[in-house]
């Protein structure tokens, strides 16, 4: 009996910094293990709007935490990420 070759399908939000970090990790994983990775781009904000949800950036506390988290992830990757202070302000 033949064993199945492991494969990864990653649906990633094209507008998400978090997804960029995951994309980089999966590419690294693919290179080290030769596991096939299938990337499927999506636009999560469009999906969320279609089903009636607001994207997190509409809520200031979620937006601020998201930017903080992205800055922290950037530091782990040796990147200097500085989101603008007035991003998405209305």
From TrEMBL:
One cellular-component annotation, GO: mitochondrion
UniProt-listed InterPro entries: GST_Kappa/NadH, Thioredoxin-like_sf
SUPFAM superfamilies the record matches: Thioredoxin-like (SSF52833)
Record-level Gene Ontology MF annotations: glutathione peroxidase activity; glutathione transferase activity
GO terms, biological process: glutathione metabolic process
Protein name per the record: Uncharacterized protein
Lineage, highest ranks first: Eukaryota, Metazoa, Ecdysozoa, Nematoda, Chromadorea
């Amino acid at each position: 009996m033949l064993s199945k070759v492991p494969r990864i399908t990653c649906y990633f939000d094209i507008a998400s910094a978090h997804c960029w970090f995951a994309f980089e990790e999966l590419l690294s994983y693919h290179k080290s293990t030769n596991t096939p990775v299938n990337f499927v781009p999506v636009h999560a904000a469009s999906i969320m709007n279609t089903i009636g949800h607001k994207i997190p950036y509409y809520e200031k506390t979620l937006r601020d935490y998201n930017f903080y988290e992205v800055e922290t992830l950037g530091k782990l990757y040796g990147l200097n990420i500085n989101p603008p202070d007035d991003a998405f302000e209305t």
